[in-house]
């Protein structure tokens, strides 16, 4: 059982000028649980897409599956070789039922012409039982929560006779008991001789489940280790390349003016009884997983999701936002979670993306946009935030993730906001840019701007906030000062024990 | 770091890089003129022909502007011909009912009333489209196909299929007159092209229109009132249809429910040939104008060669496919 | 979703029922066997094409060129029957084949040109139609052999009172097409993949679906149905009328959308489409019988379409 099921040599991938992967060698032994570890932007997802045939590597790459060299891997070939991937963005079919989604991989094999609805039911039922989850196989997937959709994706991969199952960040929205169930399924798979590749940036999970670990950083392979050779600290160092010393914030901000007060805010099926205060210059962290209601709450503060009950008070005055336009006018800016779909208009110019929020302010006396004013405004922010770009007429997609996020920030800073809501702002951003963003956040807080930082990354919340709220299933379940918890404690709290509701 | 246009004014390569589409179109236009010069000397490129082209192409050009701005926003307006016809019918009715042989005084106030009424109707249709698409959420294809049918139906109902004709001389001047040696419709078209170009590139509305075409969600998140912008876009599209019809019915000296039905494909062809991205977000008036000239020349040549109208339209279909194909090759090689 | 959908189909059913009741009581001639059979015959062609459109919409695409394909098929089959002494079988065969060929052309263009299907099929609509009319000079074709003109009924009998009844071939065709489409969509893997593709094309790509193959099937299917449906149309009219089909694209799309299909893909049903066609047919027929002047027809149909797509869209928006 020491043979390799997958061997990859010299894997590179370039997107425009960005080197997503640089000459990576990678191999997995048959029947092992192997972890692929790295920060966001390290190249993990690209490597997975190459293994599954969705993306082609640069020339000179060698891929060997089960001792057979593969010259041109396509999705169907990869599936036929027994490789199943559970993608981070799930790739489920929202218009079909749970049962059909689970069965979907059988379809890809071809051969069977007629749909065997009975078989679908049975296979689906078996798989759901195995994973010990609560899914109705007749439910339409589009109506399920993100967490449930993740479970459907997991079931789908398990339902086939796969030899290698790749799970790309599968626990991002699972509760503790669901994670435990998943881990026991992984052990079952292992005893059945199935190889599992577990991709993650959550160190505690990696330490719990892996036998061997490959670490990627900035597109290169840093090393291959046995679990016994590493621990959290070493992994963190390998992933980031730095002895990461972060300091918790120590200033006191309660005696500053209250910018925002939220009282008993509720929205049906999304969040309930939210109460908190945001002071000038305060960085308030909201920790919680996907599905905890944090983004829905952010939308409400930004005027895009009117609440059912409760009050929002801005500098003491109650506000009712009919749309985000009024929220922006009141001085609130929102950096969304999904930079690609919500944060930036990728195909359009940096210039327009950076000024879309302030067109009205750039008008000359003819009510047209003053080009010079527009250019100098953008240039100002490029200089202030240290954004690296060759021309502001280029489409914003040509920038790196970190620089893109800085453009998102610039467009909001240009509005002179009183409050900035940052929703998972460092996803897909490399280490240097991350630090740069944290630095910018601190500077903004020095300028008395109130910041709400939403994140599920423990160090990010712990080391950059004055005060932390923990949300779960729509409610604030705990609040604390950063000095009251350690990283591990905070992590455990965020995941929870699945005993609520 | 910033684009220094001044230094590169005479650097051909950088002009090409700034806008490859425009450059290719200019080359294509020159090439066609050259071909015509060589193969059909003195037959197509005559002053007479230029003059009649200058009369024919404006209504097509204005209708192309009408569909282009909706395509930029990521949608499409399939009801442009029906809207133009309806506006023309309204104008025609007012003029033929209110201007009689025996009336005294100038017909000009009534003409103005007729024109404005036509424009009002076309703007209302445009607003209707915009509301359906933006506020109710109907896809632009379905919404404008629906209004095309509805408006077409109203047109048939009020005209009973007949032609409404007989406009005063003063009105006919609009579509047939010449000012400073240039046909009036052409002047109107040029003026509109310049205005719309400035509107699209220099006003918040225009830029927002482009942004919505690329990514409506992100534009909304940035605080732009997407719904209002879209309604304005389709209203403007309607207005342009109205203006086109003012010229059209003057040239035909009549209005009818079914005029210009073959124009729809041609306006799409002109837009796409002119560089409009069919998915939205990109496209320049300059490109559209060049494409318009190219197509008008080709069309006149076909006319001269005696090609059947049906074959011509088949060729337009083929040309649209070729244009899309070439764009793909160009974009994958960048 | 299935609950919401059931509600929608049920609502549509109620509307149709209400209309039938209304027209039956408003006029004498609506609710007669003769009229209803006539209606069925006249709308069989639309129904067949709507079944094809349903499949295309479910896959996430759209086709505006099918009316041109039908026109081409009509001419080809006329040539087959008149010039080559073909029989019904060969007529259907050549019509179906030309439909598949032109449909596949659409599919390849859509797949490889990477432009919206709507624009590509507007282009092919004009290409196919313009070229056909150019070659045929738009001639109407009347001179079909007698056996052909008489063969449009399949099971015929003469009733006691001397009236001649028969089940027209086009109607049988319609029923067969609906059944076939239903089976494909609900009982074959091919059909389920079409749904999947319309629901999330990226997921379909990653799951290893043969997207090119599926695209070719979908557009060939509507081409095929347009082809054989047009044969039925010629059987009824005893002639080829080139300008009778092109221009009715919206009606077909409207029937499928009325029946629950979405332009975004991934949704729709044969039952819904059948009801959509029935709705349009009943309204059209009822108006004629009630003596509403034909000048109102286009307007009323346009109004119905806008109201129904509007309601559909608004509901979808509120539930999202």
Could you characterize the architecture of this molecule?
The complex is a heterotrimer of chains A (501), B (334) and C (320). Chain A is an alpha/beta fold. Chain A has 3 domains: 4-240, 3-Layer(aba) Sandwich (Rossmann fold); 248-331 and 417-501, 3-Layer(aba) Sandwich (Rossmann fold), CATH 3.40.50.300; 340-416, no CATH class. Chain A has helices at residues 44-51, 75-80, 98-109, 117-131, 146-159, 176-191, 203-209, 232-240, 294-301, 324-329, 339-343, 350-355, 371-384, 401-413, 431-446, 458-464, 487-495; strands at residues 4-15, 18-29, 33-37, 62-65, 68-70, 83-86, 164-168, 195-200, 212-217, 220-226, 258-267, 271-279, 283-287, 309-314, 317-318, 332-335, 419-423, 450-455, 467-472, 475-480. By secondary structure, chain B is mostly helical. Chain B is globular, with a radius of gyration of 21 Å. In chain B, strand 2 (178-179) and strand 3 (182-183) form a beta hairpin. Chain B has helices at residues 12-18, 20-39, 47-72, 80-98, 108-136, 140-159, 169-176, 184-202, 204-214, 216-221, 226-252, 263-273, 285-304, 309-333; strands at 164-165, 178-179, 182-183, 254-255. In chain B, 54% of the residues are buried. Chain C has helices at residues 2-26, 33-58, 66-83, 88-113, 117-136, 146-149, 169-187, 189-199, 201-206, 211-237, 249-258, 270-289, 297-319, and strands spanning 153-158, 164-168. Chain C has a two-stranded antiparallel sheet with strand order 1-2. Chains in contact: A-B, A-C, B-C. At the A-C interface, helix 2 and helix 3 of A face helix 8 and helix 9 of C.
Name the descriptors.
heterotrimer, A: 501 residues, alpha/beta, Rossmann fold, 6-stranded mixed beta sheet, 20 strands, 34% helix, 25% strand, C: 320 residues, mainly alpha, ABC transporter involved in vitamin B12 uptake, BtuC, 73% helix, globular
List the helices and strands and how they pair.
The complex is a heterotrimer of chains A (501), B (334) and C (320).
Chain A: E1 4-15, E2 18-29, E3 33-37, H1 44-51, E4 62-65, E5 68-70, H2 75-80, E6 83-86, H3 98-109, H4 117-131, H5 146-159, E7 164-168, H6 176-191, E8 195-200, H7 203-209, E9 212-217, E10 220-226, H8 232-240, E11 258-267, E12 271-279, E13 283-287, H9 294-301, E14 309-314, E15 317-318, H10 324-329, E16 332-335, H11 339-343, H12 350-355, H13 371-384, H14 401-413, E17 419-423, H15 431-446, E18 450-455, H16 458-464, E19 467-472, E20 475-480, H17 487-495
Parallel strand pairs in A: 3-8, 3-9, 6-7, 7-8, 13-18, 13-19, 16-17, 17-18
Antiparallel strand pairs in A: 1-2, 1-4, 4-5, 9-10, 11-12, 11-14, 14-15, 19-20
Helix pairs in contact in A: 3-4, 3-5, 4-5, 14-15
Chain B: H1 12-18, H2 20-39, H3 47-72, H4 80-98, H5 108-136, H6 140-159, E1 164-165, H7 169-176, E2 178-179, E3 182-183, H8 184-202, H9 204-214, H10 216-221, H11 226-252, E4 254-255, H12 263-273, H13 285-304, H14 309-333
Antiparallel strand pairs in B: 1-4, 2-3
Helix pairs in contact in B: 1-2, 2-13, 3-8, 3-11, 3-12, 3-13, 4-5, 4-6, 4-11, 5-6, 5-11, 7-11, 8-9, 9-11, 12-13, 12-14
Chain C: H1 2-26, H2 33-58, H3 66-83, H4 88-113, H5 117-136, H6 146-149, E1 153-158, E2 164-168, H7 169-187, H8 189-199, H9 201-206, H10 211-237, H11 249-258, H12 270-289, H13 297-319
Antiparallel strand pairs in C: 1-2
């Amino acid at each position: 059982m020491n043979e390799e099921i997958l061997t990859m040599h010299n894997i590179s991938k370039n997107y425009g000028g960005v080197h997503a992967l640089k000459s990576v060698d990678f191999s997995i032994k048959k029947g092992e649980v192997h972890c692929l570890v790295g920060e966001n932007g390290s190249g993990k997802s690209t490597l997975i897409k190459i293994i599954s045939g969705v993306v082609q590597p640069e020339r000179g790459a060698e891929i060997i599956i089960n001792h057979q060299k593969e010259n041109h891997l396509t999705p169907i070939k990869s599936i036929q070789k027994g490789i199943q991937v559970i993608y981070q963005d799930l790739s489920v079919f929202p218009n079909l039922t749970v049962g059909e989604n689970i069965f979907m991989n059988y379809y890809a094999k071809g051969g069977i012409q007629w749909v065997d609805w009975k078989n679908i039911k049975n296979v689906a039922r078996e798989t759901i039982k195995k994973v010990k989850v609560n899914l109705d196989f007749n439910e339409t997937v589009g109506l399920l929560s993100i967490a449930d959709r993740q479970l459907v994706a997991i079931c789908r991969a398990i339902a086939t006779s796969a030899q290698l199952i790749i799970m790309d960040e599968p626990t991002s929205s699972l509760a503790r008991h669901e994670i435990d169930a998943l881990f026991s399924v992984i052990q079952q798979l292992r005893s059945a001789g199935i190889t599992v590749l577990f991709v993650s940036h959550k160190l505690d999970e990696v330490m719990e489940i892996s036998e061997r670990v490959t670490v990627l950083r900035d597109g290169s392979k840093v090393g291959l280790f046995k679990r016994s050779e590493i621990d959290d600290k070493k992994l963190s160092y390998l992933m980031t390349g730095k002895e990461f010393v972060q300091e918790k914030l120590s200033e006191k901000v309660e005696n500053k003016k209250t910018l925002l007060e939220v009282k008993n805010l509720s929205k049906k099926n999304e969040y309930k009884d939210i109460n908190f205060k945001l002071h000038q210059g305060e960085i308030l962290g909201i920790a919680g997983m996907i599905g905890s209601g944090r983004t829905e709450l952010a939308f409400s503060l930004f005027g895009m999701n009117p609440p059912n009950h409760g009050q929002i008070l801005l500098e003491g005055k109650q506000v009712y936002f009919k749309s985000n336009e009024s929220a922006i006018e009141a001085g609130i800016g929102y950096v969304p979670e999904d930079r690609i779909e919500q944060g930036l208009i990728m195909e359009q110019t940096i210039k327009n993306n950076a000024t879309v929020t302030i067109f009205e302010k750039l008008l000359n006396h003819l009510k047209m946009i003053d080009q010079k004013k527009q250019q100098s405004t953008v240039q100002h922010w490029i200089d202030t935030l240290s954004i690296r770009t060759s021309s502001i007429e280029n489409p914003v997609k040509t920038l790196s993730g970190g620089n893109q996020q800085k453009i998102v920030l610039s467009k909001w800073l240009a509005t002179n906001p009183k409050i900035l809501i940052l929703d998972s702002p460092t996803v897909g951003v490399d280490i240097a840019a991350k630090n740069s963003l944290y630095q910018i956040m601190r500077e903004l807080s020095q300028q008395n701007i109130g910041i709400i930082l939403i994140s599920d990354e423990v160090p990010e919340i712990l080391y950059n906030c004055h005060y932390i709220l923990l949300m779960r299933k729509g409610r604030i379940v705990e609040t604390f000062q950063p000095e009251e918890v350690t990283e591990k404690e905070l992590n455990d709290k965020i995941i929870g024990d699945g005993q609520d509701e | 770091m910033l684009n220094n246009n001044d230094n590169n004014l005479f650097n051909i390569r950088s002009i090409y890089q700034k806008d490859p589409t425009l450059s290719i179109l200019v080359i294509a236009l020159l090439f066609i003129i050259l071909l015509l010069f060589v193969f059909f000397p003195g037959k197509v490129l005559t002053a007479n022909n230029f003059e009649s082209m200058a009369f024919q192409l404006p209504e097509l050009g204005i209708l192309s502007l009408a569909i282009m701005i909706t395509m930029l926003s990521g949608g499409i307006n399939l009801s442009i011909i029906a809207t133009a016809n309806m506006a023309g019918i309204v104008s025609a009715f007012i003029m033929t009912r209110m201007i009689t042989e025996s009336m005294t005084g100038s017909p000009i106030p009534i003409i103005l009333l007729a024109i404005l009424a036509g424009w009002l109707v076309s703007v209302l249709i445009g607003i209707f489209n915009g509301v359906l698409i933006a506020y109710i959420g109907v896809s632009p294809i379905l919404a404008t196909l629906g209004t095309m049918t509805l408006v077409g139906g109203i047109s048939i109902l009020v005209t009973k299929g007949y032609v409404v004709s007989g406009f005063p001389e003063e009105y006919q001047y609009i579509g047939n007159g010449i000012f400073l040696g240039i046909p009036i419709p052409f002047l109107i078209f040029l003026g509109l092209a310049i205005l719309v170009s400035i509107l699209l590139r220099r006003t918040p509305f225009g830029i927002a229109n482009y942004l919505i075409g690329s990514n409506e969600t992100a534009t909304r998140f940035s605080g732009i009132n997407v719904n209002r912008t879209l309604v304005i876009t389709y209203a403007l599209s309607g207005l342009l249809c109205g203006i086109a019809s003012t010229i059209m019915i003057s040239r035909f000296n009549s209005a009818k429910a079914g005029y210009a039905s073959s124009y729809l494909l041609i306006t799409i062809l002109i837009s796409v040939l002119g560089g409009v991205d069919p998915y939205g977000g990109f496209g320049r008036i300059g490109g559209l104008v060049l494409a318009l000239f190219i197509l008008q020349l080709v069309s006149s040549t076909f006319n001269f060669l005696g090609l059947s109208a049906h074959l011509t339209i088949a060729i337009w279909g083929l040309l649209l496919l070729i244009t899309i194909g070439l764009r793909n090759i160009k974009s994958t090689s960048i | 979703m299935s609950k919401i959908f059931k509600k929608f189909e049920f609502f549509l059913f109620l509307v149709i029922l209400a209309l039938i009741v209304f027209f039956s009581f408003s006029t004498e001639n609506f609710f007669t066997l003769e009229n209803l059979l006539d209606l069925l015959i006249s709308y069989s062609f639309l129904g067949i094409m709507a079944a094809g459109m349903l499949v295309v919409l479910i896959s996430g695409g759209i086709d505006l060129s099918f009316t041109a394909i039908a026109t081409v098929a009509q001419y080809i089959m006329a040539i087959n029957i008149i010039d080559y002494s073909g029989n019904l079988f060969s007529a259907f065969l050549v019509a179906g084949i030309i439909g598949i060929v032109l449909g596949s052309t659409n599919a390849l263009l859509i797949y490889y040109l990477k432009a919206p299907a709507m624009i590509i099929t507007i282009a092919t609509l004009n290409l196919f139609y313009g070229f056909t009319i150019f070659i045929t000079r738009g001639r109407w074709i009347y001179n079909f052999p007698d056996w052909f003109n008489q063969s449009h009924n399949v099971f015929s009998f003469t009733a006691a009172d001397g009236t001649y009844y028969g089940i027209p071939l086009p109607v049988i065709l319609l029923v067969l097409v609906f059944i076939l489409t239903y089976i494909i969509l609900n009982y074959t893997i091919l059909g389920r993949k079409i749904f999947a593709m319309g629901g999330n094309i990226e997921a379909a790509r990653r799951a290893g679906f043969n997207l090119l193959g599926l695209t070719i099937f979908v557009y060939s299917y509507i081409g095929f149905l347009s082809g054989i449906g047009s044969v039925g149309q010629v059987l009824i009219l005893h002639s080829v009328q080139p300008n009778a089909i092109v221009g009715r694209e919206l009606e077909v799309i409207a029937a499928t959308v009325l029946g629950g299909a979405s332009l975004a893909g991934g949704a729709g049903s044969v039952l819904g489409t059948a009801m959509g066609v029935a709705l349009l047919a009943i309204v059209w027929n009822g108006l004629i019988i009630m003596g509403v002047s034909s000048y109102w027809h286009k307007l009323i149909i346009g109004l119905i379409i806008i109201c129904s797509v509007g309601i559909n869209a608004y509901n979808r928006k509120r539930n999202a």
